Amino acid sequence: MHDVCNPSFSEVSRNIILELIAERKAECSWRHFRRAKASTTCETVFAVASVLRIVMLGNVMADEESAQLSSAVARVGLRAAFLDFSIGDLEWAVSEADLFVRLVKALATDSDCIGNGSIATLTLVRYLMAAHDGFPLARNEFRERKRRLEAANGLVNDLCQVADERRAKLDVIGALSCECFGAPLLEHFSLSESLCKLGTPCQGGELKQRTLCLQALAARWERVKKKEVEHSVIWKNLRKFDGVPIEYDRMTQLMESQKRKAFQVCETSPPSVEMAPKKVRKVITIQVKKEIIQKNEAGCRVIDLAQEYGVRHSTISTILAQKEKIMASSSAFKGVACVSGNRRASINEEMEKLLAIWINDRHLKGDITPTGIIMEKARDLSSADEEEEEGRQPIPTTVIKKFLKNWEELQEFVNKNHPEQAEVNRAGDIYSETAMRHFRQLLKKRQRQTTLDNFFQVSAFSKQQKIESSGSVDQLE
DNA sequence: ACGCTAGACCATGCCCGCAG
DNA sequence: CTGCGGGCATGGTCTAGCGT
């Protein structure tokens, strides 16, 4: 660790830093930087300068960049590499050099800069920001995160294979940017604009103006992000990746699942928070539930069943609590994954049974039943069920017919004799639509059901006849 | 097509009773 | 007291239905 009192430091490091930032013509950043150098260490100053270079030039991990950095280190006689600076020094430097941090933040959120940069860039900036925001990371943790983020870089490449390359990469980097800064990526803000707005000397009211500019940019991002579903998908998955590695297939599956949802508010929790893998809700079918109930009745313990079926013990308890309901229910279609608990299930079960009987009957007759006809039949049966669902006393068909006839007569009478026919017609149409339609449909359904019943009776009768006739033939033989 | 809502139900965490 | 089995309350997720 070198002391700042080293008389040669100021001039040498200033030159180096100016050299480093010359490419981007951001000399002004030195002025910000200078405020922090007075009592800090050489290593810290150099480290911050290195970060500045990384942020501005993009990819520190390239061999060429590393060589330049080593050269710079050699020239000022510092042994410290940029990854080896002390966290205490960095914290101090960052807290003192708030303007510098703002600059780094602004530059690092620029899409051109980040887009050309590496994950390592973000890692280092993240390190800066973590220290600045009060979440200092232990060195080992920092390195572990760096390792993970580099692995995440591989994930970026995978994503690029399944999505638009630049888009996906920017999305991931944007997500990483969120994670690094707790602030979003300003993806449409070019580097030159950043430098123009933020790279000039920051003094007095101008600083305030620039702060407002940053806030405006943040607001701009807020508008952009709401339209970007993929951002949240990749963001969330990157968070998961940073916590617990997830398989690529699993991730794409999650992406498909989450694309259906609206964009959720970008999370801004501290970067050290690790996310658990997204849980997947399993659906236990009626068949499986029945198996569970039967095994339990045979003496199998709840805990064993839970282990066997890979569910929580309380889930088994819940199933057992609903034992009667589950056992009473049935799926007319063997092998069909009839989802238990679906609120439509109970309504549909009866309909399924009737439908199965009907289809079986047609199969026995050698008919091939088209899907459309099956669906139509299902609708009919379902309608009949709904009528019973109401729980009211069924209205006799004759009463409905009489009622409808009376209504038609009433309409006819009013139309003939009322002075304001237009108004009456309008009111009559509304009433007919809202009240009378129900009874007309009810009558129609019953007529269909009667036809079906007749059909079943005829079928059953013909089958019975067939059986009897074949039996008599057997007897004769 | 999309968003909202209600209902169903699995997952989680906490609590209680019981046996050793 | 401790560990285990089971129940209960609550939250999260999914799906169907409905309105716009």
From TrEMBL:
<dbReference type="InterPro" id="IPR009057">
    <property type="entry name" value="Homeodomain-like_sf"/>
</dbReference>
<dbReference type="GO" id="GO:0005634">
    <property type="term" value="C:nucleus"/>
</dbReference>
<dbReference type="GO" id="GO:0003677">
    <property type="term" value="F:DNA binding"/>
</dbReference>
<dbReference type="InterPro" id="IPR007889">
    <property type="entry name" value="HTH_Psq"/>
</dbReference>
<dbReference type="InterPro" id="IPR050863">
    <property type="entry name" value="CenT-Element_Derived"/>
</dbReference>
<protein>
    <recommendedName>
        <fullName>HTH psq-type domain-containing protein</fullName>
    </recommendedName>
</protein>
<dbReference type="Pfam" id="PF04218">
    <property type="entry name" value="CENP-B_N"/>
</dbReference>
<feature type="domain" description="HTH psq-type">
    <location>
        <begin position="278"/>
        <end position="329"/>
    </location>
</feature>
